[in-house]
Structure formats: C-alpha cells, structure tokens
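Ligand-bound model needed. flavin-adenine dinucleotide.
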Amino acid sequence: MEITLNINGVEQSHDVEPRTLLVQFIREDAGLTGTNIGCDTSSCGACTVHLNGESIKSCTVLAAQVDGMQVTTIEGLAQTDGTLHPMQQAFHECHALQCGYCTPGMVMACVSLVEENQNLTESEVREGLEGNLCRCTGYHNIVKAVLEVSEA
Amino acid sequence: MIPANFDYLRVDSVEGALNALQEHGDEAKLIAGGHSLLPLMKFRLSAPAYLVDINRLDELKYVKDEDGQLIIGALTRHCDIESNSLIKENAGLLASATHHVGDPQVRHRGTIGGAIAHGDPASDIPSALLALNATVVVMGPNGTREISIDDFFVGFLETDLKEDEMLTQIKVPSVPDAKWSFQKFNRRAQDWAIVGASVLVNNGQSGVSLVNMHSTPFRATAVEDAIAGGADAQEASEQAAIGTEPTSDINASVEYRKHLARVLIKRGLKEAGL
Ligand SMILES: Cc1cc2nc3c(=O)[nH]c(=O)nc-3n(C[C@H](O)[C@H](O)[C@H](O)COP(=O)(O)OP(=O)(O)OC[C@H]3O[C@@H](n4cnc5c(N)ncnc54)[C@H](O)[C@@H]3O)c2cc1C
Ligand code: FES
Ligand code: FES
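Prediction:
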C-alpha cells in the first residue's frame, strides 16, 4: 500500500507492505538511519521519534497507522545551517553520551519531555526518561542536560 | 521482528468498524494504540488476517462530566487521561494508575479502551476501574449494551466482548471526596507490576483490587468485606490474598506475590486514611 509521511518537513511516499513498522519505513524506505533499533520490543527507547510533536516508539507503530501524519526524527532537529537544537547542544556540553547508541532516541524523548513540562525537577526528568535505556552514561549527565534546557 | 502479513483496513466511524468486524468475523482484529497487539503480532503470538484500524475515530476521544459520572471515550489515550483535570479531581485513582503505565512514549499511544479490551490481569488500568465501580459500554450489530466492570473480565486475556462488538465508552462514577491510593511494585520504573493494588474509600464504602494476582483483574472482596465489618488496615489487609491464584515466574513466586498483595493493600489502605 502507498504510505505518505511528512518526515522532517519532506513528503515521503513509498509503496510498502501493511506490516511495515514505522521504524523500518524511516530507516529503509526514507533512508534516515539516525533512528536506531535496540530491543525491537518497545522497551529501550532507541527508536523514539516524534509523531505530531509527541514522543513515540517507532518499533511499535505501523507506518500505515500514521499515514499522512508528521514525523520528526533526530535528523530533523538541527537547523539547516547545522546549528544544533538546544537539547543536542546541552548533550554536547554536559557530556551526556558515550557510545551514542541510545542518543538519538534519548534526545527525542528529552525534547518531548521538556515541551510538555517546562519546569521539570530532577526526579521528574528521571521518571520521564523511564522509557529510554542507556548502557554507558549512568544517566547522570543526561539528566543534567535536560535540566539545563528546561531551566533555560 | 516483523508481524505476519495481514490486510489493513482503516475505518472512520464506529459503524465502519462494526461492519468490518461483521464481515471478517474472528479473522479480524481491531487495532487502537497497538501497544498490546503489535508486540503479540511481532512475536507471532497473534496473526489476524485483517487489521481494522480505529485510531482515527476522533468521536471516541473525549472525557466528559455527565450527571455525576465521568464518560470516557474508548480511544482516549493514556497521556490525555493522566493529565485530564476532570479525572484528576473526580477519579484521581484512575489518573494515578494510568500515570503508572509504561513510559511517556507508551502513554502517548495506548488507549483506555485497548487496555481494558485486552483483558490483561497485569494491566494497571482495569484495577483502578474495578475499585471505582466503572461500567463498560459496548456496541455491536444489535445496538449498545452496558457491562459492569465486574462482569467484563472472564478469563486470561478474555473478556465478555463478542467478536462483532467494540468497546466505545467507559463510565466512571465521580468520587471527588474519596480517598484513594494506587500501589505498584516493580523492579524498574517502566516495568509492568509484579503486583499492584488499587484502594478507594468513599463514605465508608471501599473498593479494593489487585493487579497481576489472578487470571483476571481481581476484586479483593475479602478485604472489602473486612472493612465493611469494621476492620482496620492491618486486619483487612491480612485478607488480601484470599481467592487469588497468582502465577509464579522469574520475578516472584506465588507465596511472594501473596505477601506483596498484603503489604501493598495495607500501604494503600493507610494512605487512603484507614
Ligand atoms: C513497553 C510497554 C510497557 C507497558 N507497560 C504497561 C504497564 O506498566 N501497565 C499497563 O497497564 N499497561 C502497560 N502497557 C500496555 C499499554 O497500556 C497498552 O497501551 C494497552 O494495554 C493497550 O492499549 P492499546 O490502545 O495500545 O490497544 P491495542 O494494542 O491496539 O489493542 C489491544 C487489544 O484490544 C482490542 N481493542 C482495542 N481497542 C478496542 C475497542 N475500542 N473495542 C474492542 N476491542 C479493542 C484489540 O483488538 C486488541 O485485541 C505497556 C505497553 C508497552 C508496549
Ligand atoms: S527499539 Fe523500539 S523501544 Fe527498543
Ligand atoms: S551512550 Fe551508550 S547507550 Fe547511551
């Protein structure tokens, strides 16, 4: 079936099987490989993207379910001149990543979290990131980065 | 992991959904948020031939106050329930239980109707609805029927919904003065409950239920009876495991689950002022 998504402001139409997952559509059909697959079972958050502005796990959504909607991936956050999104900048400054595997999903989850609540406390940040696993950083610097953006 | 192939049908009305169910019978499955169904399909534990997508039925996304009752559309998402002021003020227990579901991403997709229709004893939401004495509204080819939440869950992942019916609405009595508590015991924040408990006390009446302690969401009648008989939190909570048949798994043995049920209900009753 023909699926059209607006991904990072660009219309993407592809003929795919109904069982195509959103994350497959993004990576394989749209060719945007910034979004990672970790667990493939909706636990780790590596595949987090925004659907109409809200964070979702793209391994647990069918592309067909979101046909016609707006998706933002990690590639869509920075400005066209390369200026980083404030959350990306804060990750950079706070050393909120090590291997970087969780980072695209983590950044997308963090942006959605701050958009929903501008006055986050540290414990709200930790709770708000319960759906994203990081094997490297121990979360501490990720929490710092989010607080930096939410306090800004 | 990719689900088995299926035909995808998108409907834009309740009538359209009911027609699709009638046409395809047990070969068809409704998909709402997909956050219980898609994981099953990816593991090939479920392989419907037809998937009927009801996500766009905006007519079933609402929370209203009607004559002292909250009326909730089946497709209202968890994130819209946990943050809704009518629900927070008049059925705070439901807002709290919903907030304990999964993580923000899951709550952006999952719906209250899907959480109930799935009939999972480990789900947090049915337990809150039992304690609140909710009613489930279902539509089928012969019209609408209302089912008490107590009669809705009939077995493991099995409900009173017929193949050609869909859940459209949940009615929850408003209890703005009730004291309540939702207790969830798990190892990591995002996990499902190893055991959970809902407690609600309103005008001397109590509603007490358990998560993941039986083949269905479970009303702890023995605790409710003890409270009606004047028992305090300690005495009432000793009855918590009566009638339950929990499973033993990697997280907990049967005995440990029963212990948790007593502990969580005691904490809940104390938090609810008993
Ligand atoms: C990572 C993860 C963690 C989770 N953690 C928790 C948790 O901690 N606690 C918890 O309670 N839940 C948890 N969930 C489950 C979550 O709450 C689901 O959203 C919910 O159980 C199902 O809702 P859905 O809208 O996604 O339903 P779907 O998956 O779309 O559907 C589930 C079932 O209900 C049927 N159905 C859906 N809508 C209707 C309707 N209107 N009428 C009739 N039948 C219908 C479908 O046919 C299907 O059989 C978790 C899910 C995930 C993926
Ligand atoms: S890959 Fe989607 S949550 Fe892990
Ligand atoms: S930086 Fe390595 S998993 Fe998070």
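The helical segments of chain A are 22-29, 86-94, 103-116, 122-128, 140-151.
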